Amino acid sequence: AGTPKRGKKLGIGVLYPHRDPSFLTTLAVVGGGVGIGSGTYKRYAVIRKQPMSFTPSHPRVLALDGEYMHVMPAETGGGAGKTSSVPFSSIVGCKVSRKHPRMFRVLVFREKETKRYDFEAASKEEAAAIVAEIRKGVEEVGKGGMSGGGM
Q: Which neighbouring-strand residues pair with 114?
């Protein structure tokens, strides 16, 4: 038990469970359409990538409901982290990376600057589906607002 002796090799999933490729498939990926308000509630297992390369990545659950995108800590990850709720009305951009199709980015307008959330999905299809859901939520909120301009 304890820490490994010097020179002993451990699999990457032992030291860093969030970097194990099978992590995203073992985490609860999608919750069906549980109704909250007028929209549906969907959950996706993602990995939140930090902008600096030396900072660790963290497993997160991305939950989308009728008016908000919630970035929550994953159930299996020690419970570290906080929940951030972002209204769809403040999302100014969302796209899948061309170079790495499992990666996608969400740009959020805060009071004075734009905040960037980088995520990695389990597959390129899931990344495209998440981006499509976010765009659909932004479009729905835009229709209900004063004027649907901007995006």
A: 109
User: How far apart are alpha carbons 41 and 81 in whole angstroms?
Assistant: 21
First to last CA, the chain: 54
In angstroms, the CA 17 to CA 77 distance is 8
Backbone angles phi, psi at 122, to 5 degrees: -70, -30
β strands within the chain, DSSP E: 34-36, 39-49, 58-64, 68-73, 84-87, 91-96, 103-109, 114-120
Nearest to 119 by CA among 103, 132, 130, 99: 103
User: How do residues 7-49 score in pLDDT, each as one tens digit?
Assistant: 444 444 444 444 444 444 444 344 443 333 445 689 999 999 9
Question: Which residue is associated with the tokens 């929550």?
Answer: 72
Q: Nearest to residue 69, comparing CAs of 98, 99, 93, 52?
A: 93
